[in-house]
Design brief:
CATH superfamily: P-loop containing nucleotide triphosphate hydrolases
Structural class: alpha/beta
Mean pLDDT: 95
CATH class: Alpha Beta
Radius of gyration: 19 Å
Number of domains: 1
Strand order of the largest sheet: 2-3-1-4-5
Largest sheet: 5 strands, parallel
Helix content: 40-55%
Number of helices: 12
Distance between the termini: 50 Å
Strand content: 5-15%
Number of strands: 7
CATH topology: Rossmann fold
Length: about 325
């Protein structure tokens, strides 16, 4: 039976969302979206619009419209670039057999006879992906669709309004390593903007974890890479799925990845690399990040992660 549950991974930029996504990839009870599921549409407009690009938001659709256009409105950049211009895609070497004409056809067909609601349209989004993906690795035991989009925490209330039995997994990483990886992008954001957005995401995550304790889960990236089995056993229990050893290593469509890149900037998810990434920043940069985020760091157990010296915070 096809699932109707939607699980979403959320994370601030370079906070380990892609790593978590890839580690859940081979789980036999999940249909795991192959790339970032950038569900947002250009119609998203609210007081949070200036924080992050609309592609990372929960979508909005016009009151009047048609299903075929709804498919086009969903930004879904990584997938659509891979399907439409594969040579320009950073995932061009990923072995994926999807015909987009068929995918869109499946999307439209799924909506026939159903109310044109946001929840139904998102079901159609995931349904059409996996029914048109000819070489997708499946077990026949799948119970939920799993997507990932950065900063999805901002739209938690909308997610649960559409999928009351869904789950949000919010991954948090220390802001030093996260910022250090973010500035490797072609168009990085400033230290101040990164840190304040990190603060907002974590404040909202802590709030929603209190408000929706059965459906909203915070996963520290540092805990995941220090002891993957313990972290994944706990997470699977929270999601109501069985634990699987496939969760111990990142994979794509069931094929183990030697490194997470290009699915994310984090190539090798280990505690040593995490600390080394932080230490690519100057002490001045670390000090500025600490001054701006100390409150959230304290609440999430990061207050002593950087001790103001060049010694490893893991030894602190």
């Amino acid at each position: 039976m096809e699932p109707r549950k939607v699980f979403m991974i959320s994370a601030m930029y370079e906070n380990g969302g892609n790593t978590t996504h890839r580690m859940l990839d081979g789980h036999p009870e999940l249909f795991v979206y192959p790339f970032e599921s950038q569900l947002g549409t250009s119609l998203v407009s609210d007081y949070l619009t200036s924080y992050v690009p609309f592609k990372y938001r929960w979508p909005e659709f016009p009151l009047g419209g048609d299903v075929a256009n709804d498919y086009e409105l969903i930004f879904d950049e990584e997938m659509k670039v891979r399907l439409r211009t594969p040579d320009r895609s950073k995932f061009k070497h990923a072995d994926m057999q999807i015909d987009e004409v068929n995918r869109k056809k499946q999307f439209v067909q799924y909506m026939q006879g159903k109310p044109r609601t946001r929840a139904r349209l998102l079901e159609a989004f995931f349904h059409s992906t996996f029914t048109s993906w000819k070489n997708v690795h499946t077990s026949g035991k799948e119970r939920a669709w799993l997507g990932y989009s950065p900063v999805m925490v901002l739209d938690t209330e909308k997610i649960f309004a559409d999928f009351p039995d869904g789950h949000v997994i919010h991954v948090v990483r220390n802001p030093y390593s996260g910022y250090s990886d973010t500035i490797k992008r072609p168009f990085p954001i400033s230290l101040e903007r990164y840190t304040w957005t990190w603060n907002l995401c974590q404040h909202m995550a802590l709030t929603y974890a209190e408000k929706h304790p059965m459906n909203f889960h915070i996963l520290r990236f540092e805990d995941l890479i220090a002891n993957p089995k313990t972290a994944m056993q706990k997470l699977c229990g929270q999601l109501g799925i069985s634990y699987s050893d496939t969760c111990l290593t990142p994979s794509w469509n069931g094929v183990v990845l030697k490194e997470v890149y290009p699915w994310g900037t984090i190539r090798v998810p280990t505690p040593e690399v995490n600390v080394a990434t932080m230490n690519q920043l100057s002490d001045n940069e670390k000090s500025r990040i600490f001054a701006l985020s100390v409150v959230m760091q304290r609440l999430l157990g990061y207050e002593t992660f950087w001790a103001g010296t060049k010694t490893s915070p893991l030894a602190a």
